Structures are given as structure tokens and as C-alpha cells.
Amino acid sequence: MAFLNTKPNIDRPDDFYAELLSAHDGLNSDESQDYNTRLLLILANHVGDRDVLSQALAAASQKRE
Amino acid sequence: MLQERYQLAYKLYPYERSADQDQDTPVRHPVVVLGGGPIGVATALDLGRQGIPVLVLDDHEGVGMGSRAICFAKRALEIADRYGCGKPMLDKGVVWNLGKVFHKEEKVFEFNLLPEEGHEFPAFINLQQPYFEQFMIERVRDLQKDGVPIEIRGGNRVDSVTVKDDHIVLEIMTPEGPYKLEADWLIGCDGASSPLRNMLGYDFTGKVFQDSFLIADIRMKADFPTERWFWFEPTHGSGASTLLHKQPDDIWRVDFQIGWDVDRKEEMKEENIRRRLDAFLGDSVQYDMVWSSIYTFQCKRMEQFRHGRVIFAGDAAHQVSPFGARGANSGMQDVDNLGWKLGMVIKGQAPETLLDSYNTERIHGADENILNSTRSTDFITPKSDVSKVLRNAVLQLSKDYEFARPLVNSGRLSLPCTYDGSPLNSADALGGPARTRPGSPCPDAPLGDTFLLPMLGNEFTLLTINADAPDTLEESGVQVKRVALSASDDKTGALKERYLGDNDSAVYLIRPDQHVAARRPSFDETHFRAAIRRATGQE
């Protein structure tokens, strides 16, 4: 089974963060949420592996006390 | 006549009447520096050590109150060391390596900076700005005793500036009335609100952030660890973020992010500052209040740093938000860059156009600093809802998942920029390590009992590693000395790793500011003569 990589894996993380933020420039709250959802589906398709996707779904649902 | 714009910590250059004030015609000085802060005094040290008479004017008579810039990075210390005052700063400063990041009620992660071995100076120190300034002025006083031509005049306020073709006329106010001076070159180091820039009507544009920070310096005898704590959305309710930093003398800096619409007068009341501090530290911690202030911040710069014979450096030329400590640190790099170029132009060793490379290189540096500090600011004070949602998601994930930690941005440490694409660089003919490519600041390396950097700088140097070259070289009026090293000097292998890479030998041409101008596996006279001309604006 493939495993979800949770180690740092993004080259130049500050550049990525800035690019992600700028993608939201000029969008209102609903548009931003739509954008994020589309982005999520695009990335999920790129990952493809069902085991990895299940682990990612679990990782994102943090239990906040 | 002269009004104090701020309170002094130390009176270091009290007003004294100068003979210039009794002359019928204005006296001409080669270089006048406006502003006796860290950048102005560093400029005086750089030029004075080259034997160029330099006069510093300041409307105040010493160093301003308050810790202000408390984080001095390796490169600024190396530059100060080249001027002869880096060691006392290091001895006095506090070094920390452990940082902790908190979000709401819990610690999300901690990090150890694990600095690279084999450097004389640490990645940075925490030191109150008045100490930094004081050590530099003490150095000025020592050099003056040896006849180094530096003069600092306190209580001298420049009220008007007239730019002529080949000089500048200054009208100066003193406690004993006005007088006039002329300067061949005028350097504006008079801070972010630069009166000089305003008098000449130059623009200063960029971004103002809608937030403010309350700084409190407190003295705690308590056993508090030497760590940096950055708290996002603290549950102690003291602000949108809180930063805790150690300084020398048992002093701690606490920064509270308190928002844009604040009643400054109300917030600055001691009882209100104590209320925030008590909530943060807990009721049982005893402390004395030392200094407090409220600041807002912006990222701005001048379009050009050089305007003919008037040149700007430090905050007068560019202003950044404080996250990442890029203010005073980048100002020191301005001086490092400008000093040798102006020195060579004044001595007739290089054409005036060499100074345009100061403009190119330091604007490159300023833009890099503004980019980094803007990103940190966007993370710390998110400007939109979605930006805050993203920021908080990163913080939540960073507790359990290592991947999110590099995305947490509470300030990126100031690193010197590499002048990629500078007109002074010769093409890389070595293919060695990327960190020492032409344009790079030379990284230090241990050489037995000493270090590499003190052997470099002040003049052009040919650094040879396992390679032959003449001991001196003169090209178009530029003197170059050789520093010869070999594998036997390199016990730790750091020199090889940083300067040779896969090569067996290398020859580097290094500028007076310890930046690489050219490199090649072996000495080639034609190649290096051309590189010297290029690095001095003669090609």
C-alpha cells in the first residue's frame, strides 16, 4: 500500500504559499471556496492512488478538542 | 532652535562649535553623511578607514532611546568586524537557537536552527540597537586617535540642500545659529522619514500594513529560557500574535500585535501594558518595565537610490516591516556595497558610473527584503478571510505534520543577497558551488586558529586555493593582493565544500565588500585583468 507523504515536499515553500494566496486575489468568500474545491479535485486526481487519498482525507479531519 | 525629536539613550557626540562656522565662505568637504544612526556611522567607518575625510551631521547629540532593531544577522556582524567592531557586539549579544511556535492554547512545534559550523559569527545575535551604535562610535573614537579622518557633529540640523553640478550646498542650523557647508558627495542615512529625501522631493512608495504592534521591553530576573516564542492568536487574549525574544541584561522584548484602530494613548498606559503582559506571562512572574512603544509598519522604497552626487542608504532608501530583521541588517549591506565604490571614485581609480552598480545591486537587495518581509507580514497579519483560513490551516496541520512547518512564516532570517546579474560580475568559469558563484557574499570558513573572512575585503583580493598566481597585480589603477591557501589550511573541509566543490583548485577575485566578482580553476592573466576592469566599472 502506498503511504501519504507528510514530510516537507514542496520546493521553495514561501513562493508556493504566495502563489496560492495570490490565486485568491479579487475573489469573494464563495468564489474562494469554489476555487479551493476545484483545486482539491485537480490535486486529488493527480495523486490518483485511492489508499493515499483515503489517508489524506483522514489527515485533514483533525480532531480539535 | 533645535528641537529633540526623540529621547536619547546616550549623549555620544554633543554639539561643539566647529571652525567651519567661522568661515566667510562655506568649507567644502569630500563626503557629508546625513544621520548619525547605525548606517551613517558605518558609512563614516567605511570611508574613513580608506583615508577619505568624512563628516557626519546629526540634529541630535547621541543614540536614541529604545532597543528598536534587536536582531543583527551574521552578515551585518561580519561587516562590523571588517570595520573593527564586530567582536564587542558578539560578546554582548545573546545567541538563541531554539524557537517555539504556539497557536491558540498550545505549542504546535519547535525548531532548532542548528547553524552551519565553521563560521566566526553566529547566524544572528539579539542586541539592543543602542549597543550596536555605541560599539561603532567607540570604534570611530579609536580610529580618530590614529588620525582616521572621521568627524561627527551633533546638534547640526540640515535645513536646506541645493544640488549644484559638481557639489551640494547645505544650510545647517546649530544651537549657536546657522552656517553653510559644501559637499562633493552627500549620503542620506537619515532614516525612514528621511528629511533629505523630503527636501529633494524624491518619492518613497510601497505598501502600508493596517496593523500595529505594541513593544514592551521588560527586565525579568526569573529563570526564563533563551528561546524565541511566537504565539499566533494567543488565548491569553493579549493580541492577534505575540512574540517573545531575549536581549542582553536580563531584558526581554515582547511584541503584541494589537490591530489597526487602537487608541495609542490608552494602550501606552503602564497599567494597560501590564495587563497584557500579566495575561501573557502569568500573574506570578515579576518584571520591571524598561521601554515601550507602538509601531506600525510598511514596505517602501525609493525608485532610485543614487541621484547624481546624492546617494541614499538604509531606511532612508528602503523600509521593510520588522519581521525577519531586514532593516538595519540591509542598511549595513548598503554601506558595505557603497563604501568601496565611492572610495574608488573619489580617489580617481574608477569612473563615476561605478556608483550606478550600487543602485542596481542594492535595489536588487531591497526588493528581495521587501518580498520576504511582505510575505511574513501576510502570514502574521492575514489581510483577507481566505488568507486567514489558509494561515490557520497551516498552523493546525503543523502540529502533527512536518510538511506544514516550512510554510509557517513568522519571519525569515535576513540573509545577504547574491548580486546575480550584476554588471560587475564576470561569467562563472569554475562551475563550483552555487553559494560562491559570482555576485555571492563570501561564506566564512575556519582556517586553523583563524577564519577566512578577516583575510578578505577592504581591497580587491585574489584568493587562490591550491593554485598559483602573482602575489600582487595592478590593473587600470586597481591594486589587487593575493591570499594563498591550500588543502593543508583546510582541516575541516569547509573551504573545499564552500569554494571548490568538485574542483581541485580555484582562483577567486573578491571585491572589497567580500563579494565574489569572478572565479576560475586556475590563474589566467587576461581573464582576471578583464574581471578587475569589469568589477570596477571600467569595462
Automatic annotation (TrEMBL), chain A:
InterPro entries from the UniProt entry: DUF2783 (IPR021233)
Pfam family, one: DUF2783
Organism: Ruegeria halocynthiae
Superkingdom per UniProt: Bacteria
Protein's name according to its UniProt entry: DUF2783 domain-containing protein
From TrEMBL, chain B:
Cofactors that this protein relies on: FAD
Boundaries of every FAD-binding domain copy: 30-366
GO MF term set: FAD binding; oxidoreductase activity, acting on paired donors, with incorporation or reduction of molecular oxygen, NAD(P)H as one donor, and incorporation of one atom of oxygen
Flavoprotein listed as a keyword: yes
Domain of life of the source: Bacteria
Keywords tagged on the record: FAD, Flavoprotein
Protein name, as recorded: 3-(3-hydroxy-phenyl)propionate hydroxylase
